[in-house]
Amino acid sequence: xxxxxxxxxxxxxxxxxxxxxxxxxxxxxxxxxxxxxxxxxxxxxxxxxxxxxxxxxxxxxxxxxxxxxxxxxxxxxxxxxxxxxxxxxxxxxxxxxxxxxxxxxxxxxxxxxxxxxxxxxxxxxxxxxxxxxxxxxxxxxxxxxxxxxxxxxxxxxxxxxxxxxxxxxxxxxxxxxxxxxxxxxxxxxxxxxxxxxxxxxxxxxxxxxxxxxxxxxxxxxxxxxxxxxxxxxxxxxxxxxxxxxxxxxxxxxxxxxxxxxxxx
Length: 264
Description:
The structure is a single chain. This protein is of the alpha+beta class. The chain has helices at 2-10, 29-40, 59-63, 72-91, 147-159, 174-186, 194-201, 205-208, 210-218, 224-228, 236-240, 242-248, 252-260, and strands at 17-22, 46-51, 94-96, 101-104, 132-133, 137-140, 168-171, 192-193, 231-232. Helix 2 packs parallel to helix 4 (72-91). The longest helix is centred in the N-terminal third of the chain and has 20 residues, at 72-91.
């Protein structure tokens, strides 16, 4: 890895991104900071901090030797490590863009006003497993974890000659479009201007998601000062709980579809 990072710097690629995972067995705040310091030696323009999740049918999930995502003690450990990592990067001149993403102050911007905006633009993913969406459709190839099923999906993809239709996907109606816009906006540290939402949908997020936003506010996840300025923005603690906030905005129909999905 050190050699690869050196080659990237030698090639003068303008944005170096390093991804790190926290929450592994035996990891402490001290050992986590040691990992962060090793990454910071390269002065990456971007750093992503990903929490470890153990999914069903994965090796970790089957081993039974690691904590599960329902383990409250492990959840608290991940939160402690997240806060330690966040504070460490902020103290070293990085700004927080989202729960996971941190950008070094003064680094080249890759998401300027003329660049891609996930809330309003479509996306075409290339390759097996890549997600794509338009204004009305969210689609991909099937998803699996167990190796035999993964190979079957890849074999099916490589044998496909007609990519003109999607076999695995979900239509996005007006309600789902509102949820997606809110989710993809509010999970950014900058938050979401309420006027942009109203311009697109003709309503306010407070009208469309009164109960959910009231719950977030009661938990201390919404910044009242930003709200007074017309911006729906998370507090630092709200950003820390982004992965809990997101599912709270899933629609009943999506929840039912997720519950009915057969794990592979």
